[in-house]
Design a protein that fits this description.
Oligomer: single chain
Helix content: 10-25%
Strand order of the largest sheet: 1-2-3-4-5-6-7-10
Mean pLDDT: 75
Strand content: over 45%
Radius of gyration: 20 Å
Distance between the termini: 36 Å
Low-confidence stretches: 13-23, 170-181
Order of helices and strands: HEHEEEEEEEEE
Largest sheet: 8 strands, antiparallel, barrel
Length: 195
């Protein structure tokens, strides 16, 4: 019984010290990683495909950030490696890229934040177009992100929506059976730690 009481007291102490250490709204370097889900913008169809095969349009990201600001308003540039894919019905379209979102955020009630900002993308590799056609997508693209965050001490969890402005060509003969343009969209869940 004493071991249980000691363990419970230690757990309460760790939680309280995290909260006390914790309202880390100041400047600092951090790392983050998480999951991405690509969407076509047809949310009911996407919900059905998630139900049937949850991993078909998922991906991941990891990287680092620096947060500028000491109070409720902050600027947070990030540099991330992102791997994404989406199921086309006739195969999987895959993409590896470097992302550089620059988020402007505002803290509310000590632990909640809202954020938005531009996002820059550089494609490292994709299988969207055939090399025979010679019409590769522009590797440098631009978009935006916005979302909500929950911050407890140095630990943060955020949920964002991202959309690109640039159309990308996809060779549907190779992937779907035709050719068309699309705009990349994704929902991003990230876990971060600020030092």
């Amino acid at each position: 019984m004493k071991v249980f009481q000691l363990l419970f007291a230690l757990l309460i102490f760790l939680f309280a010290s995290t909260l006390a250490f914790g309202q880390n709204k100041g400047a600092g370097f951090g790392v983050k990683g998480g999951l991405n889900y690509n969407t076509s913008g047809k949310y009911f169809q996407d919900a059905e495909s998630i139900w049937k095969n949850p991993g078909a349009s998922s991906g991941y990201h990891f990287g680092a950030f620096y947060k500028f600001g000491n109070y409720d308003l902050y600027l947070r540039p990030e540099l991330l490696f992102t791997q994404t894919k989406f199921d086309t019905g006739n195969g999987t379209a895959e993409l590896s890229r470097i992302d550089a979102p620059v988020m402007i955020g505002l803290h509310f009630f000590e632990i909640i934040s809202v954020m938005a900002g531009p996002s820059f993308h550089f494609t490292l590799s994709d299988n969207y177009t055939s090399t025979i056609e010679g019409t590769a997508n522009d590797p440098l693209r631009f978009g935006y992100q916005f979302g909500l965050g929950l911050n407890v001490g140095p630990i943060g969890l955020d949920l964002r929506y991202e959309r690109e402005f640039n159309d990308q060509k996809i060779n549907f003969d190779r992937v779907f059976g035709g050719t068309t343009d699309f705009k990349s969209q994704q929902v991003i869940l990230g876990l971060s730690f600020q030092f």
